[in-house]
Amino acid sequence: MKQSFIGNNINRFTETVKDIKGKLFSKTNNYVECYEANEGLEDKALKDKGLKDKNKDTVKIPPFINLVTFNRMGLTIKNLNNILDSDEDFELHIIDCNSKDNTWDYIQTLNDKRIKSKTRFTLNLGPIYPLNYSLTKRKPGQYFITVDSDTFIKTKNWIARFMEVFDAFPEVGLLGVMRDKPYPRYLPPVTARERDNINYLELKNATVGVDLDFVPGQLQCLRPELIEEIGYWSEENGYGDAEISPRIVHYTSFKAGYLTTVEIDMTQYIGCNICQGRDICKLSKSVSSCFSLSKASNYNESFVRKHGWKYRETFKEIEEGKRTAYCASVHDPKSMENHFYNQLWASENFDYYIKNSN
């Protein structure tokens, strides 16, 4: 399956870094194949729920939830349905990164007023590209939640659990949760904080280069004021949750930590016989499943081996005053104009996934 795909699209993957860079930083190309927006419902929903204050000067905006899919349709259906099986208010934005199974077909069947956009990219450019694409769509003052497609949130009213900690601790900018089954539970050094019977675990060190000394990214929520300070996840080093935690802890006015009242499950495989998407799945299971497609296309570990040096170099540049804690994004041209941005590093990172993970 993978060999035939590459064989039929060989010209696409023989582009030079210069070609990729030219496309990435072009104002007319963002690799969006399909974009479906649920426009015009925000104001009506806010009025219906009585969220505008008497002066109509401020609006309580439901949090933005970002969910990115890449194959593994079975897990995506289970976990996404679980998010939608809730009466909490949120704005959900779904991105599919060129899945080769029927994930996009399933996404198109979803009909929920809280789904504000459905986007499909022509290529998978790695995990940071779609994450920052979503971040550009966040409204001013809106909390930003990112959920991995392999994360099943077991706790009901989990958004309210996040918000009560943010309300009690104005200094907290980033909250996440521990990884769970089938991964072993693990906590880096933390300090327990409590205020008005509400508590969280503050990340103590966030040491650059120390394994797992960060808040993992399978379920994270960012305070809007923090986003103003840090901008985006770093496209230049591509390290995701491993880079954003130390950047927050050491170079912003905010703290990062763990929520203790939300439980998750991170099951990595669902059998075809119990998959909720088996009726729309067109894969030949005897040849490949959505999980084998996902495994064959996962190049995160090899990316770190090849480009991991940029992670340490980024923090070295911050220490030397060559850059600030604010990271710009290819999706936000103004941010690249106003802040240091290494286009070569970013284009190399995106190019690595384009050539290997599609």
What is the second-level CATH architecture? Alpha-Beta Complex
The CATH homologous superfamily name equals: Spore Coat Polysaccharide Biosynthesis Protein SpsA, Chain A
At the fold tier of CATH, the topology name is Spore Coat Polysaccharide Biosynthesis Protein SpsA, Chain A
In which range does the helix fraction lie? 25-40%
- What's the helix-strand series? HHEHEHEHEHEEHEEEEHHEEHHHHH
Q: How is this structure best described in words?
A:
The chain is α/β, with parallel strands linked by helices and 358 residues long. It has one domain (2-356): Spore Coat Polysaccharide Biosynthesis Protein SpsA, Chain A (Alpha-Beta Complex), CATH 3.90.550. The chain is 35% helix and 16% strand. It is built from 14 helices and twelve strands. A ten-stranded mixed β-sheet has the order 1-4-3-2-5-10-7-11-9-8, with helices on both faces. Strand 3 (91-96), helix 5 (103-109) and strand 4 form a beta-alpha-beta unit. The radius of gyration is 20 Å and the shape is globular. The protein starts with a helix and ends with a helix.
List the helices and strands and how they pair.
Elements: H1 2-8, H2 17-24, E1 32-37, H3 42-48, E2 64-69, H4 73-84, E3 91-96, H5 103-109, E4 115-121, H6 128-135, E5 144-148, E6 152-153, H7 158-168, E7 172-176, E8 190-195, E9 198-203, E10 219-222, H8 224-230, H9 241-251, E11 255-258, E12 264-265, H10 290-296, H11 300-307, H12 309-319, H13 333-338, H14 343-356
Parallel strand pairs: 2-3, 2-5, 3-4, 7-11
Antiparallel strand pairs: 1-4, 5-10, 6-12, 7-10, 8-9, 9-11
Helix pairs in contact: 2-14
